[in-house]
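Hey, can you fold this one?
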Amino acid sequence: MNETNFAEMQATFLEVVEKLTFMFGEEAEMDEIEVGDEPWVEARMKFTGDLNGSLAVIVQESLQPEIAANILGLDADGIDTKEMLDDALREMLNVVCGHVIMALVGQDSNFDLFAPSNEVLPSEALQVLMSDSATTAYLLDDEPLLLHLQIEQG
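Sure. Predicted structure:
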């Protein structure tokens, strides 16, 4: 991905996430991200069409209730199931993915999004993602968030 596309992807991601979650986002350096002992959750989806690949959003489990509450318009204490937390993260990914693809390929782009999935990442998988140049780091209300955009060459 060239620098212009990369900058467009970042700007689009931050704009969409702020509007969707009502949380302030900013770019961060990967070395600013502290992993700690808390589990990290990944929501990932594939896309095909004018652009082929996958996009993943990775957050610490403790950030999921705030994201879910803001997307669903509920109090964070009212979100009591892992299913609701995972659904909200997948919904955020779904909206972000569509906007990022259109930012990279154009508003008239043709693409299909596949159903996203969630998983708790083993620490080794998280470290691999963090060292991958396709992963970018952000702070969402000062909490770490990773975005992994994998474009298939074809």
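The domain at 3-151 is CATH 3.40.1550.10 (Chemotaxis protein chec). Let me know if you want another pass with a different chain boundary.
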